[in-house]
């Protein structure tokens, strides 16, 4: 009964279809995720669902592992500190890197910063979009602004990286 009353209040031009969200709005929407914790009520979390699976280095790179492939990028903290990224110097597919070995650079209007491999492995894919649009690193550093994908040789190295909570504490200690 209450539903009928609510529907009568809708304007005549109301469309029951969901609106098309821009990529920025979709990203904002993913940051709001309801989580169910057993034995407790639902709580609202502003941490991205994606970032719960991320591991971070003390040099501000992140890695998301799916199977034996790790997707690598720079953290929001790093891209914020750099400012507008204007160039991404990335490795070629097939290059191998040891953990914490330099694999590329990001250049911005303010500074240049080296990139370090969070894990040992071989580059299997480079984000070609960044050649034409390096600003994706600023716009969506955990999504479209990823840098490279690597086949991991030593997955046990993942245990030595920080989770989101530890990384947040680390970045707060830098301020």
Brief account:
The protein has 175 residues and is an alpha+beta fold. It is 24% helix and 29% strand. The N and C termini lie far apart (55 Å).
Low-confidence stretches: 1-52
- Spatial extent as radius of gyration: 20 Å
Mean pLDDT figure: 79
State the strand order across the main sheet.
3-4-5-11-10-7
Question: What do you see in this structure?
Answer:
By secondary structure, the protein is of the alpha+beta class. Helices cover 24% and strands 29% of the residues. The strands form 3 sheets. It has a 6-stranded antiparallel sheet with strand order 3-4-5-11-10-7.
List keywords for this structure.
alpha+beta; disordered N terminus; 175 residues; 6 helices; 6-stranded antiparallel sheet; 3-stranded antiparallel sheet
Give the topology.
Layout: H1 2-8, H2 23-31, E1 33-35, E2 43-45, E3 54-56, E4 61-66, E5 69-74, H3 76-82, E6 85-89, E7 96-97, E8 102-108, E9 112-116, E10 121-126, H4 129-132, H5 136-139, E11 148-152, H6 164-174
Antiparallel strand pairs: 1-2, 3-4, 4-5, 5-11, 6-8, 7-10, 8-9, 10-11
């Amino acid at each position: 009964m209450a539903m009928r009353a609510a529907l009568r209040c809708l304007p005549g031009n109301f469309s029951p279809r969901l609106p098309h969200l821009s990529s920025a709005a979709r990203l904002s929407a993913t940051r709001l995720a309801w989580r169910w914790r057993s034995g407790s009520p639902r709580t609202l979390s502003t941490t991205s669902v994606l970032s719960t699976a991320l591991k971070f280095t003390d040099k501000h790179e992140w890695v998301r592992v799916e199977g034996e492939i790790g997707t690598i990028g720079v953290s929001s903290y790093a891209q914020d500190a750099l400012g507008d990224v204007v160039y991404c110097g990335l490795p070629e597919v097939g290059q191998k890197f040891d953990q914490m070995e330099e694999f590329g650079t990001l250049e911005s209007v303010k500074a240049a910063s080296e990139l370090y491999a969070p894990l040992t492995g071989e580059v299997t894919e480079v984000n070609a979009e960044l050649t034409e649009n390096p600003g994706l690193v600023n716009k969506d550093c955990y999504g479209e602004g990823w840098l490279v994908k690597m086949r991991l040789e030593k997955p046990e190295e993942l245990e030595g990286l920080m989770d989101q909570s530890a990384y947040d504490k680390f970045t707060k200690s830098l301020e």
